[in-house]
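Study this:
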Amino acid sequence: MSHLLSKNRLSKKHHVNGETQTQLVTPESAHWRYVGFEAHQLKAGGSVVIQTGTDEVCAVILSGKVNASTQKEAWENIGDRMSVFEQKAPYSVYSPAHDEIRIEAITDVEVAFCKAPGKGGFQAKLITPEQCQYETRGVASNTRHVCNILFGNEPADSLLVCEVITPSGGWSSYPPHKHDTDAAPAETQLEETYYHKIDPPQGFVFQRVYTDDRSIDETMAVENGDLVMVPKGYHPVGVPHGYQSYYLNVMAGPSRNWIFHNDPDHAWIIERDKKL
């Protein structure tokens, strides 16, 4: 199995001894500097508390309804979708460094905690669906639906968070692009995680991660609840016929600026698509 693939911890079993965590990636486990990620599945009445430490954290309510709080703020009965495939923007809670986020499940809930180094420059806040930016990009089999959760729509110290739905038989993060070189304004360096969900859940998608020199060249069969780490290189996703793909992206790096570089071998597709 690729070292870039983190399997869903609960994919082959039911909840055991109250276990809720399906994913955990830290800078130490990923052998990089910036991005951390964890996901939890909570039964109604369950709860989880995340201490932010030196990170800022964005808790994305992937599905279900919750009560949420930080040290100074609280929000009740938030969450407006029961599935990530409803094509509704999520509710999210942002917390700065040296704070906490507590999630209490009203219904069964899936929640993702997106982490990156924080300077404490922003206050805890609720990010509503109306504050997100939802758009459809691409044409034909390269069509995908993108929702910016904590991107240009909202300020933060380091974090960039968005989610993408790719229809059956389609491609996304395509043509292949990368953002692994600190060379603004041409390109910025950003680590990235992809947290994948599949509909129906027994399906799979393919994700390739590769560099120009092929020092990294991994193609992974990714199942529901799996996570792919992208330390560098290009990283397209392909979805088999009959299934649709969702993924939550977390990015962070030396600067909070997303400037990507397309693989020159495949950049011609962009000009071709403009004529469609």
